[in-house]
Amino acid sequence: MSATLHPQHTALGLAASGVPVLPLRRGKVPFGNCTACTDNACGGRPNMKVPGPCRCPGVCHAWAAATTDPTVIVSPAWAAAWQQAVCVAYHPGGADLTVVDLDDTDAIGWARAALPATRVVPTTRGEHWIYRGAMASRNAVRPGVDIKSAMSYARWLAPGVGAMAALPDAVRALAVKEPSPAPRAPQTLPAPLRGGQGECPHRTPAFLERGVAMAEQRITEAAGAVHATVYRTFLAVLSRHGRCGCLTDTHVTRLFTAAQAKGETARHCTDAWTNARTALGL
Fold this sequence. Notes:
Shape: globular
Structural class: alpha+beta
Largest sheet: 5 strands, antiparallel
Strand order of the largest sheet: 5-6-4-8-7
Order of helices and strands: HEEHHEEHEEEEEHHHHH
Strand content: 5-15%
Number of strands: 9
């Protein structure tokens, strides 16, 4: 399918093949809920794990708005969204698919060594590996790796290359639960790691700045499972930047601020940070 097509035309083509779609606005994020649906006051979509149907015809509830119904895609209620849309997203779980989102060359190298070959779609920084079969979605399951399937969305980029393989146990095993909160974790901001516990990989300050900025964005754009997203993002930042002593109070504060803007408490942020350090042996 041509990347030059208008997003609505691309969406119609995907929907015809059984892939649920939705528009994304600037920033490549879903459109916000309408006034009647703010804070799930409507009860949510039927396919969300909240009680009651939502009769809103608009592009609400992020991934849960995804549809294969062409009458919805071309409806007046969606018209304004398509006029502002920058690209198309799809709900992998709704199409019985799982996307392993690999953010960088290190993540791609890991996948080539650890996972069976499947359909591959190039992305701006890395690759999407697409498997047949749905599972729970998790962000930052390891450095540079997200899983997008049920209750999640992925940006449509291209059909991809290669035969699509069945979802392997190696990918399912990545969706582990966050450890239980550490007992009596302090509620104050934890101190950054000190002492240069490993070789510093940051050739320029821009490398660390880019990593922290990406982590802030991942938390800010979380459409659901915020607790898990915060923990996994902290884990990813610490696994990449936590052993050389370069993280400062300012970096940690930025991450905590992004998490608290999504509704996390200071206590949960501290617990998640402590648990991530413990998981990595820091």
